[in-house]
From TrEMBL:
Residues 25-72 form the HTH cro/C1-type domain. This is Helix-turn-helix domain-containing protein. It holds the Pfam family HTH_31. The lineage of its organism: Bacteria, Bacillati, Actinomycetota, Actinomycetes, Micrococcales. SUPFAM superfamilies: lambda repressor-like DNA-binding domains (SSF47413). It comes from the Bacteria. InterPro entries: Cro/C1-type_HTH, Lambda_DNA-bd_dom_sf, MLTR_LBD.
Amino acid sequence: MVRRARITPERAGLPSPSDRRRVVGLRRAEVAALAGISPGYYKRVERGVVGGISASVLAGLARALQLNDAERAYLADLVRGSSPSRLGHPAPPAHAVRPFVQELLAATSLPCCVLDDRLDVLAANDLARALYLPLYESADRPVNQARFTFYDAASRDYWSDWDAMADLAVSLLRGSSGRDPVDPGLAGLITELRAHSTDFRTRWAAYDVASDTAGVREINHPLVGHLTLETHSIPLPEDPGQRVLVHTPCPAAGATGQLALLASCGADLRAAGVPRPRGRHAPRGG
């Protein structure tokens, strides 16, 4: 329903309607016609009755609803999740980071970390910890990027484009929920965020989906100021759900020198034995 409401007849290549429409976007019958299925079948699909749906029907729906790659994958995950063979959890998600990956992080001169499908930071090298300094001010471990974004008022200053980062966090969790709908930790996190954050709850209702954290990050760091970083995401196939995030500087924005300064600041803090601030930020109503 949410998706078809975003697509006008003109955008779908249909003739401009001459009558006054009572629905926003496409009607069910129009989506069904574009997908090559009956209106009754599409109505069942929209209600979540997707058991036994064929690949050709999925492709038709994705085409009719103009889904991107992440949204197509989410739709396929939902169908797989409805299969009786998927009623049991196939394997618990991995939360331990392999020693080899830990060594790789430590040997890298760029800020990098391991993120999972819940947006938990499972491991990070020293420069990534310095980069994520406001996230580590909470006593809770593992650090969670979604909780920081929606609960901690400092996130509004830390993320230069807070709305974009909030949208990304929700879209990633939506994609994760499709891939693993029976992960109790993920389900619990989403339930918690929906209960305590209006900003999260509103975005969750939009059903936007993302599958990758790659892109440009604009950060206002408390120690070195504004940083523009390119973020690269490297999946770890042996540990589904885990991926390495590597942040590289944008030379034109002067981020190379700022990362060097950040590395120096982090070393100074460690040498001085300055403890990280502790204490849980209470959930915000927004």
